[in-house]
Amino acid sequence: MENLETAASENKNELVLEIQAEAYLRETRKWTKFFAILGFIFMGLGLLGSLGLFAASSMMSAYTPFPMGAMGVFYLLLIGLYFFPIYYLLQFSNKAKEALMSRRSQALTEAMGYIKSHYKFVGIMTIVMLALYPIIIIGAVIFRTSQGF
Predict the structure, then answer these.
(1) Hey, which of 30, 36, 61, 99 has its CA 20 to 30 A from 139?
(2) In which residue ranges of the chain is pLDDT below 50?
């Protein structure tokens, strides 16, 4: 442990990781890259779906009480919101790879900043959704009660 601290204090720009920590970082980087790519693929599919909803909105307006164009806009908003955590995940993967290849602590610091931003964004969105669920449930009950059983 002393050797690690001494090496780090002698050269503040050199990355010093234990072998197991480096292995964990390499594996985590691969999985985050996989999930980021998958996320971008699903964003593309969602974009195609929203465009389909816009195209079908005029044809389906007679068959559904809810405007399909509004659902398309909702999909676009979700895709826009989904972009940020995916982007942060991809940037974490890229910066972690850079840190492992260059052995620079600054690159690892940037990678950790991106993973922090990813989890902070996901955490805030989770809190928002948990706060909205009771409101949605109460609204649905009130709407259903006003319509009669």
Answers:
(1) 61
(2) 1-9
Tens digit of pLDDT for each residue in 84-97? Answer: 999 999 999 999 99
The DSSP secondary structure of 3-23, one letter per residue, reads HHHHHHHH-TTB----HHHHH
| 110-114, long-range: CB < 8 A, 24+ apart | 114/88, 114/89
Apex 114 CA angle, 78 and 102, nearest 5 = 140
Tokens at 44, concatenated:
């593309």
Q: What pTM was computed for the model?
A: 0.77
Neighbours of 114 (CB within 10 A): 20
Half-sphere exposure of 123 (CA within 13 A, CB side): 6
Q: Give the residue carrying structure tokens 């991106």.
A: 114
Tokens read off for 113: 């900043």
